[in-house]
Amino acid sequence: VKGIAEKMDASLESALCRMRHHEATVTNKDFPGVVESLMQLDYDLDNIMILNRLMDKALLDAEFIIRRSAPPSTEV
Amino acid sequence: MADITQAQQEIIDQYHDEWIEIGMRTEPADRPGMERAIAALYVSENEPVPEFVWVQDPYQANVLINWLLDDAVVAQANKLAYNNDGVGLLRDLALYREEVDDLNHDFIHQHMSPFWGGANLTPLVNKLSGRRLEYINNVFYGQHESYWIAYYLCAQALGVVFDAKDAEALSMWAETAKMGGWWYPYDSHCICVERPAQVCFDMEQNWLHNPEGYAIEYTSGWGVCVYRGRTIDREMEWAIFDHNAITAEHINQEGNVENRRILLELMGGERYFDQVNARLVDSDGDNKVYLYEADTPRGRFQMTLSICHSTGRKFVEFVGDNIFPDVQAAQRWQWQVEHYNPTFQS
Q1: The model scores a pTM over 0.90
Q2: Which residues of chain B does A46 touch, with a Cβ-Cβ cutoff of 8 Å?
Q3: pLDDT of residue B288
Q4: Any CB–CB contact under 8 A between A13 and chain B?
Q5: Cβ contact B187–A32 (<8 Å)
Q6: 3-state SS string over chain B?
Q7: Contact residues on chain A for B132, CB-CB shorter than 8 A
Q8: What is the mean pLDDT of residues B108-135?
């Protein structure tokens, strides 16, 4: 049974790449006044990322990390 | 540079509040909504819609995945199930992987199924048992992805126009974040996790903090202890749940400085001073700072006691391996200054 997060992540990353570039260009050109506030929003929301980082760490401490470097699975 | 308009600031504030709320949300997941949102992402990747399996917390998801991945975990559960309760069993599963020696799938099915929120996983396990389930960082974080989703949605609301395909993808990801917790996508099945039942986040200090229990806790009872933003090791969790059980001996024997500081705060400086028979070396009454020292099996050490002028809260801090003659010297070392002479303390 094959995980497909990598495939989804690849699509997401390329979309994010385009959006990041587009957003930065448009914001700087058309909405320069909002740059600072938008960055603050980004900074504040990092708090949410902390949640998944901490839980990831807890799972990692429970030795699930072994699976992340496990040999490739046999695809069915 | 043009100033931000009030309307623009209101949009940013609205997205800020809305998506922090989504990220911290603790009510049960909208399961049909989550499944619809994930199914849409599968379809956009030309993958067939998977079967959905719901579990109560990320640990259960990992136990399940490991169970399906590795017979050793099954055997380990077999051994532990004899004398353990549900949550304890789940916690211990991963810790004794090496000690297992025999396999008994039926026994495990019988004893483990109730621990996945009453869900009957036997059909799934029968179907997947013997196959190997891939586990290489195969997870998305649902509501905890809100930090990047909010940013792009907000930019969109401010007037940035993305390509139609990217905007559609963004909208699908936003739906998964609104509906539930973590999810593990496989080509035939998707394991979805409920939202936490409790999140203790100190918005002023910007950190997770709960001095008396899990800072993030799921309905299953699994959680993570976090003290002022620092994850507490499983081996030290007992101290969070039972401050009275902490003794000076625990603190003196703790090798990690951060852990020692946390244990000391949880125990309370005065109790600690009593137990180690600390004696006063010097005091600065005006600033309410006191230098104490004690002799322990690990040698003599000193600590300062400071009392907050406004709240009366007491702070105890060790001064490393140093021995100072007076408060001033200890304070100079603590603040790394040549002269310690505060004009105002709060």
Answers
A1: no
A2: 147
A3: 85
A4: no
A5: no
A6: CCCCCHHHHHHHHHHHHHHHHHHHCCCCCCHHHHHHHHHHHHHHCCCCCCEEEEECCHHHHHHHHHHHHCHHHHHHHHHHHHHCCHHHHHHHHCCCHHHCCCCCHHHHHHHHHHHCCCCCCHHHHHHHCCCCCCCCCCCECHHHHHHHHHHHHHHHHHCCCCCHHHHHHHHHHHHHHHHCCCEEEECCEEEEECCCCEECEECCCCEECCCCCCCEECCCCCEECEECCEECCHHHHHHHHCHHHCCHHHHHHCCCHHHHHHHHHHHCHHHHHHHCCCEEEEEECCCCEEEEEEEECCEEEEEEEEECCCCCCEEEEECCCCCCCCHHHHHHHHHCCCCCCCCCCC
A7: 1, 73-74, 76
A8: 51
